[in-house]
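Posting this for the archive.
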Amino acid sequence: MKLLLIKYGEIGLKGKNRHLFENRLIQNIRSRLKEYPAQVKLDSGRIYVEYEDPEVPQIVRDTFGLVEVCLCEKVPLELKFLEDKIEQMLQGYNLLGKSFKIETKRPNKSYPRTSPELSRYIGGFVLSKFPELRVDVHHPDLLIEVEVRESFYIYIERYPAVGGMPYSSAGRAVLLMSGGIDSPVAGYQMARRGTKILPLHFHAQPFTSLESLEKVRNLVRRMSYYMGPMNFYHMNLLESQQLIRESCNEKHFTILQRRLMTKLASELAKKEGALALITGESLAQVASQTMEGISCTNNASNRVIFRPLISFDKEDIVTISKAIGTYEISILPFDDACTVFLPSRVETSPTLGSILREEEKMDLDELFNLAWKTLVKEKI
């Protein structure tokens, strides 16, 4: 079997609860690899994965909480085995004019040579076998790392992972999820920080199509590649939208609709034990996402509302969307509930007082219940 040596980031800075994050991370890796013949173990801040399938390294790289994945070789604690393996590994490279550095770590303090001694020894061996190489300890072309544990672990090829914190290690949050580009990226960003994502979508059937809802399901399916099996929630907002439109000043429709969505999402968060909401809003990206509009929306919830994209340019969001595989789904041409009753003009500087006066014209409980009774929960 082949071997990966995996490094995590911020978890290493944790104190007495570090083991909780390590255990969650190991559990997540094992869950993501459950369909593959692989073994995962933790030893002194390093995670090792023994595997056969060539897809495994990429799956591991896409696991939240990891910063680097190294293709590793393991040999017994005898210098002859170490020399032979390093020589074999370097034969796969074009070394002419290249520089190298040996970096040794010795968690196994019973091994007689110190890290600097072993580095010098290995460096001398490499130069004797590959005289075309030169030493550069500051900016080497090849970094050969050796870790001394119960065996020698050697790695040259290393690849960045996604970083962050282990998924589901930092609480739950409801993601207000449209079929657009932004909200899946917002969910990904928060999941990368350890948040368990509960996606909630509002449709307006029959004004929005079944294909529109299936598009969002497919977005959730793509997100589940990173997050594992998910609960997908959706509600029909149409009747509530119609009542709002009949009752309110048209320029306030968008904010009133968003406030209703926020209240519904907050109730779902309460029901599912989530402490926060997540939206894909970016400051001033559209007319309703001004500071005034966002402030009016905040007032509708007793939950924290995270907006991880608030300072992102659209180009930044699109770049991430493409990288995580949601972009091509997001741009499919199906309407969202938010676009069904687009007003001709949106108030960009609403005051909370003016919005509350508009809400006094309506039966808020009726608006809420018309949508809440349509709540559906699916396993994806």
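The chain has a mean pLDDT of 95. DSSP finds 13 helices and 14 strands in the chain.
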